[in-house]
Hints:
Number of helices: 20
Strand order of the largest sheet: 1-2
Helix content: 55-70%
Largest sheet: 2 strands, antiparallel
Strand content: under 5%
Amino acid sequence: MTFIGLAQIALVFVLALAAAVPLGRYMAALFSSDAAGDASLVRRIEGGLYRLAGVDPAREQGWLAYTLSMLVFSGFGFASLYVILRVQALLPWNPQGFDNLSPDLAFNTAISFLTNTNWQAYSGETTMSHFSQMVGLAVHNFLSAATGIALALAITRAFARSNVATLGNFWVDMVRTTLFLLLPLSFALAFAFVALGVPQTMVGFVDAATLEGAKQTLALGPMASQEAIKQLGTNGGGFFNANSTHPFENPGALSNALQIWAMLVVSTALPIAFGRMVGLPRQGYALLAAMGVLLIAAVLVVYGAEASGNPLLTQLGLDPSQGNMEGKEVRFGQAMSAMFVAVTTGLSCGAVNAMHDALTPLGGFVPMFLIQLGEVLPGGVGSGLYGMIVFAILAVFVAGLMVGRTPEFMGKKIEAREMKLVMLAVLILPLVILGFSAVSAMLPAALASLANAGPHGLSELLYAYSSAAGNNGSAFASLNANTPWFNVTTGISMALGRFGYVVPVMAMAGSLAGKTRAPASAGTFPTDGPLFIGLLVGVILILGGLQFFPALALGPIVEHVLMLAGKTF
């Protein structure tokens, strides 16, 4: 670990926070009932869309209607993307002449991009036509991100309002998020990526002469536009199989820093918007502080582990001075590779600028554990915020048990109904991750997809289902996931990780919205100070450890002990 490396990490975090503060204020104004900003323009554009769709923007929805609207919209999105992938050979903008996807791969990919997971069991440059990339995948990059933000807004209103039965209008939230947040940011970021060397063209392939005089065929396409929403929406699905390690997707150090910044900015702004929308700005910063403490610690652990190197490689005669450079790009270096690893998994993005399978055992443990914590650091756009609110409710419940008082969070009493729904939500991830991993570890058809045996092979399985259920999308890429078993089971995991989690959380929000928001009193446990931040961090770590530590002990932890002893399995 070097001073320059730490300074680079700190600079990107500072720039992300500096942009997130005004963006959070803008988002709070945009999503308020009066549609702040240029109200006349907003209303003019919105009004035309609502009239075409037959939506009454003044008519708000209860939690059930809001959730059903989201599920119906998601169902149509899945069906449309599945059809595109199954018939892409018949559609335009296919200069590569690619064939249709198999039913199981189309199912997996449609679920993946619908749920903001962007798990890729395929190589984009050899599988997806330009039509599929743009009309199929890129469109769902916008819609899945907007859906997550819309759900977070509904849950925010549950705390901002008192004695109401409504949480907003799903269609209004989707329109405003897409038109006035994601599209403008994506346009600006796409132009920046083009300026930094990311291609944006409708050409399919181009032939290039190598230094030896041979011919090499290079895949091209509309990459910059996809790259922008891929990062801003914490989607993570790359145009290329190598994702952000590919020099076309991520040409150099500046584009790499910009990609990390883009991953952070919207998710970091959402807690700030939350605090302003509920009228308690300090509360939003408290949630952001808890996220920041854990994420910064994760970055430093990965950086330290990778900079320390791999004794097994040193025994083979490799120079240890650069640390463990296996699977990393020299143009990024250890510090910014480590930051990318932790940020993409703490943020539910899943884009990669280094191969996670080649990380040291401790370096691979951290991103896997960040996903298993629930993707809340600060998590996917929208989903990270409502996931952190779930943990905050657990924290005040624990605090209430310790002092013998009815727990409250921002003036709303947390009672038996809310806690049952919270526990139903948080148990989804361990059920899916550990359940499917256990079955796969005993199934010969699944074990045949592993490139490694022993602890690392178990880590490959755990990471795959953690990534799917956590809607992350990154992978220990040595696992051959494009098989019927993994396509179907990871697809189910993605759906449960997204919808199985959010439905009980929305039910909880509906219950809280109907309660009276009581003012703070002398007996109220403050949830915007250092004590609560520490309690929240502790609850997140303890819950994650209790759920996943036994499995992790058999995977990356034992592999780390073996590495330190200079041994392999």
